[in-house]
Amino acid sequence: MKFLVVCGQGLGSSFMIEMNVQQVLKELEVQDGSIEVDHCDLGSAASDMADVFISGRDLADNVAPLGEQIILNNILDKEELKSKIEEYLKEKGSL
């Protein structure tokens, strides 16, 4: 499975969220290598780049055509990120 963190213009916020996603996966004891995490800007994102796209609420409509989404109300809230990733992985039977 691959997660792609998408931000609007640059790569700063998506890189920060990518690092947080990796930390959350460790906390959830997700097997190393079973989920790949990457980041990019919205203009570069394509549907074949990932299984799940993670972005802030402000980009939800733009990211929706790409595929499955995890939408964050607050991109700085690690607890929200952990909760939503955990919920998604449980739904998919990956946790």
Structure commentary:
This is PTS sugar transporter subunit IIB. Residues 1-93 form the PTS EIIB type-2 domain. InterPro entries: PTS_EIIB-like_sf, PTS_EIIB_2, PTS_EIIB_2/3. By secondary structure, the chain is α/β, with parallel strands linked by helices. It has a domain at 1-34. Helix content is 36%, strand content 23%. The protein contains 3 helices and 4 strands. Strands 2-1-3-4 form a 4-stranded parallel beta sheet, covered by helices on one side. β1, α1 (12-27) and β2 form a beta-alpha-beta unit. The two termini are 12 Å apart. The model has no long low-confidence stretch (mean pLDDT 94).
Q: Which quaternary structure do these chains form?
A: single chain
The succession of helices and strands, N to C, reads EHEEHEH
Report the total helices.
Answer: 3
**Secondary-structure content class:** alpha/beta
Shape: globular
**Low-pLDDT residue spans:** none
Largest sheet: 4 strands, parallel
Q: What's the total number of strands?
A: 4
N- to C-terminal separation?
A: 12 Å
Helix proportion of residues, in percent?
Answer: 25-40%
Mean pLDDT: 94
Tell me the β content.
15-25%
Q: How large is the radius of gyration?
A: 12 Å
Arrangement of strands in the largest sheet: 2-1-3-4
Keywords: Sugar transport, Transferase, Transport
Organism: Salinicoccus sesuvii
GO molecular function: transferase activity
Domain PTS EIIB type-2: 1-93
